[in-house]
User: Fold this.
Amino acid sequence: MNCILRRHKLPVALFLISIGAVAALLLIQHANRDVRAEARVRFIEQYNRQQSLMAELASHTLEELFATYHRNLDLVVNLFEGKAVTRHRVEEVKGSLKKIYSSLANTPVIEMVIFDSKGIAITIEPYDTYTIGRSYAWRDYYHWAREMGRPGQMYLSPYARLQGGMQRGKKALIVAEGIYGPGEKFLGVVICAIDFEVLAKKHILPIHIGKEGHAWLADISNRTMLVGPSGRLVGLSFEEAFLPRWPRLYQLLLSMENGQPGSDWYDYLDPGTYQHQVRKIGSYHPIRIENRLWALGISTPEHEVEELLSTFLHRQELFANTLLVTVLGVATLLLGFLINWNRVLSAQVQNHTRALSEAHTRLESTFDELLVAKKVAAVGQLALGLSHEIRNPLSAIQMNMQMIRKKIDLAGTLRENFAIVDGEIQRLNRLLKDVMDFARPRSLNLQNTELKEIISRLMQLLSQRLEEQLIRTTVRTESPIQLVCDPEQIHQVLLNLILNAMEAMNEMPGERHLTIFARSADGMALVTVSDTGGGIPQGKLEQLFDPFYTTRASGGGLGLSIVQTIVLRHGGSVAVESQPGQGATFTVALPLKGPAGTGDMSQ
Assistant:
């Protein structure tokens, strides 16, 4: 009996081990499926959050754009000061009207028209003989201003095509504001016609996520689709555009009448073929413009999101396939290597389980990095849009200040107050310029330049200011140092470094000494700017080039970030050395032959 047991012990053990190996493999495959299912749910949630964030940022940009139109309409209304809207009065304020229209030059506004109390067009910018003298009393904005409008309210028309004049046939929106006298007596109306195609191409159509993720825009109040889910201008009612073929999308749009943001899915055309039906996941955000409710959404085909997820899971699947092949190979070799079988199998399972865990961890980290990158890109676009839009009200404020100065004799405290406002406007403009330069750097205009000439011109520019601040300067430059660069941008780099050095020494007692040394070595131009200021603590050196980091209350925190951006785009580097109480030294290194790939311009 014992002999029989000994004889069958090895096959039985082999069978049990094989069963155990197959069971382990099935468990690993099951765990793999769970990980993939969890990853899919989390990925779609994060993707929808990103779409929602982009829709919200774009919605705020449109709201600010229409707020700008409202402010300019207010300026026009204020020109009449409650007086009758007549041709004579228009001639008196003609210059101011042209300035207001000029301030809208970089917006989709294509014409500005003023009507008297009878609906007769008495002026238009730009001038159009077709419109002047015609009655538009039948138009909806005229009826609104006369019957329902109140001082300070703005009216936004539904989407329509212009019927006459130079802009005839253009797809447009009309923003209007009534002109009223004492007791809210109706005197006339001013309108701005907005080219909707230009507005859409600038603020809606450029919004993309992935390959086929597009933004769409709907007029919820009028139940009209302005820009469709495929990224095309539509201008159709919800019923015409989506019933009866896309009932879920139709019901989704109707649900937006509550004015709340949200996310959902719907069936629609495949953006790749426009023939097949696909499921799309999307997020939307409301836009409130006076009397009208819009909604802006971003939608992406579900299969594209799945493809993106599959890319991230590809490495995990490779590990799983490798594990499968390895286990099968070990099972095949069991007959020849029974003694080492258990040890080899255990090692393989441990190794691949660890690799699978690491792949899962890297996948989660990649999701977080993707979300951060998308947020940074969206904030960058928002910063550019906000910087551009803030300039319009600043221009309007500055223009009104100039008009007030012409009408009022400024003296004493009032003059000082106006000077303070002027200074703050200039400071805001400088800050906006820094933000736009940082977010959208200018292209390089490379030229063969003598570095000594840039430094000499810069020192001549700052000589009076250096003398006023009692700063002694030492400038040493090797000559010649022929450098392929954009001279204006390198001038800006050195100017920022010198101004920072001057500010660092401004509050320091004792001798103030600025040293500039330029030389060439190993194919690089090296420029050092040293000061005798208070120095920089070691803990703050790493943050020095971060955007918006500053140690001064009046600083914007972009000067050194712009310096670093310009130098890096030239293929160079910038470094700083400093000790508290011993000043600071900034070193800029630039390749003499210019950025890599520009060719040799020295000849």
